[in-house]
Design goal:
The complex is a heterodimer of chains A (258) and B (450). Chain A is α/β, with parallel strands linked by helices. Chain A contains nine helices and ten strands. Chain A has a six-stranded mixed sheet with strand order 6-7-8-3-9-10, with helices on both faces. Chain B is mainly alpha-helical and 450 residues long. Chain B has a single domain, classed as ABC transporter involved in vitamin B12 uptake, BtuC (Orthogonal Bundle), CATH 1.10.3470. The chains are: A alpha/beta (258), B mainly alpha (450). The interface between A and B is medium-sized, with 33 and 27 residues.
Chain lengths: 258, 450
Amino acid sequence: MTPPMVEMKGMSVSFGGVHAVDDVTIDLLPGEIHALVGGNGAGKSTLIKTLSGAQRPDSGTILIDGEPVHIEGPIDAKRHGIETIYQTLALADNIDAPGNMFLGRELTTGLGNLDDSAMEAATRKLMARLNPSFQNFKSPVASLSGGQRQSVAIARAVHFNARILIMDEPTAALGPAETEQVRQLIRQLKQEGLGILLISHDIHDVFDLADRISVMYQGSLVGIVPKSEVTLDQVLAMIILGKKPDEVTESELQELHG
Amino acid sequence: MAVTEETKVDEAGALDQDERQAAGLIRGPWGLIKRGVGSLELDTRLFGMIVGLLIIWVGFHFWSGGTFLTPRNLWNLTVQTSVVAIMATGMVLIIVSRNIDLSVGSMLGFIGMAMALLQAEWLPQYFGFDQWYTWIVVLAAGVVLGAIVGFIQGAIVAYAAVPSFIVTLGGLLIWRGLAWVLASGRTIAPMDATFQLLGGGARGSVGGTISWIIGIVACVAIVLLLASRRRTRVRYEFHVRPLWADVALMILGCAVVLGAVWFLNRYYMPEGLAMAHAEANGIEWPEGGLDIPFGIANPVLIAIGTAIVMTFIATRRRFGRYVYSIGGNPEAAALGGIKTKRTIALTFMLMGILVALAAGVQIARLNSATSGLGTLQELYVIAAAVIGGTSLAGGIGTIFGAVLGALVMQSLQSGMVLVGIETALQDVVVGVVLILAVAVDVAYRRRHST
């Protein structure tokens, strides 16, 4: 049996005395969309930041393809084929789309000078596939719409042949048409064999796309459930009550619906 | 039926107008000019600054009864601008990265004093006066000292996370104090004979012929640069300006450069200097005297060279891209894997190197160093960058803009001297202009960001 693409074992992060992430263990299989859900402050973003290199964990081990790895910073994560689309998008607003797409990984000429034309060409080529209506390659991204900015962030993650994609609220800032476009893209990337860790507030997104669902509650993992084996209500109960479906009592369910 | 027909007419009419506009059929003389200027794709803000500078020049020219736009005055203006311009190119990167350096004036005093002592007292003790290599040793030592001083401040800002305002405010006091301590408050003079050439003057200028050669080389460089940019964009099948617009820019660029050289070359040496020069070069002194141009002054060449190198660093190198990305969004830069702390420390180090260059020019020009050297210069340097469009919020600013900003301020000052405005009022005017320039810039940006 091939090992999972990613295993995060016993991950803990605390800020001051608060356990933002408390002993969480999850994994990700090739070609799988694994959704991570939970209320505000449940620790989802902090957990994935330990994988993307943006946050050092206090304890826990990360295995990629069964091998333990040390992820000290964003560059380490990228070296292991992990790309991240952050909720904030992490774009430098004063720089144009190609500049943002290659931020930290600029293409250079033989003499080490920035090769802006090559970067623009690569961006145009990718955007023609991801978002054909995108035409603004020379303006600072501050002047772009929410959807266009999102396209830039997604393009950045896709361009570098990621194997593992982390998406933190990828559709939060988008209109219905753009949301559908992003869903389509996520399905397509799954087809190509990428493993995708998806954080979303939108439970419909989650049920539409995910293969497995992990629920977090106040920093701890409530459980990991295959989507086919749970109902929307059961997942909602896990998010709100922090208990697995078989632990929830009738009265608690009543209260939830009342 | 009627409704459909009406709609049709409307659509046809609208289309017609669009088409005619697209074909450029509807255009008054203003529309024509607007379209023409639009094709050049110039930066409107920089364009506005250049227009502002020209207004200042022409205004002072008439006010002063025709003494401002003379070769002599503009030649002096270029020399006076160079020290602030050199430092302003570095200040742009500092401010773009959301920091500030209040210490550059004091640093200029400290490094200038060290360089002066090195050539006037320390080196001569062992090697004697006026060695051919003295100026190189002194300049190199100054640059190393500047790099160290800048890096110390930058490292404290970046790694110890002390706000740059505080670190460099401390630096402002520290370096000024040390400048005094170095020579116990004495005035150090004179400078090494060769070193003095860095400061301009008759010997420290390149002369008429070399000025023309520099102008022609610059002209060729402009043409080649625009041509190669166009070729690259055509190769990638990107949008390019109309060919006539690129050619017009080449001609415009060359005209500005060669026009400046021509104008400055009409500043001739006074008779005594010219005679000495003729004698030194074995030229026979004719009856009616000789018109020997000074040519471009060395400090001006240093400032122009610095601006070109700094523009290259800011726009064509990774380091520059990183500085701008940190200014735009520090978190995004860090998540992109950029070593933000190292980058910040290096911008301060670069600033230190530029201060050393400026200090060299300054002590060479004055032919002396005092412990008060460079006092209040930090304010002029910051003002030059800000008038030149650098945003204190970070992320935005150009080297060229800062150099223009330095030129605007120096033009105001020398213009006010020409028309006889008293010193106290001069400061008032410069302060008002600084605030006005930023107010206009903020208003412009607000209008264009929505």
